[in-house]
Amino acid sequence: MVEINLLKLNFDDKEFSHIRDIRETVFTNELGISKQELFDKNDETCDHFLIFDGKEIAGSVRILPIDNMVKLERMAILKDFRTKNYGKNCIFQLKEYYSKHGFSHIILDSIYSVREFYKKCGFIEEGDVFQRVGIDHIRMSLTL
């Protein structure tokens, strides 16, 4: 598996500007999601991670703690780093981190077309397909 490092950030850290850039590149430029949808009030309280390959930034993800589980949100891997196991390695490290910190589950709302990626990481589908920002999604979960 490819070696990556995760840098945990807060919303007010200066490095958060990289997360803004990544979300805009992946979600707005590639998927056509409005810039207004990229950030919300949860950004102020979530854990944020930059995903690094050596010195290069490969992507970002945010984690929203909810009781005894965490919700993985806004995972974005830059195009040059996709299909190289950066996302899979990131999820593996997040599973380890949040398991050690007493959480029992990870949930996420996957874009439907990429749900197979999350299945390969151990997530299972829950419920029906639903629309968010004009894109089909499905809830998925993983027991830690």
TrEMBL record:
Family annotation (SUPFAM superfamilies): Acyl-CoA N-acyltransferases (Nat)
GO MF terms, alphabetically ordered: acyltransferase activity, transferring groups other than amino-acyl groups
A Pfam family it matches: Acetyltransf_10
Keywords noted in UniProt: Transferase
Coiled coil: none
Classification via InterPro entries: Acyl_CoA_acyltransferase, GNAT_dom
Protein name as it appears in the record: Acetyltransferase, gnat family
N-acetyltransferase domain: residues covered: 2-144
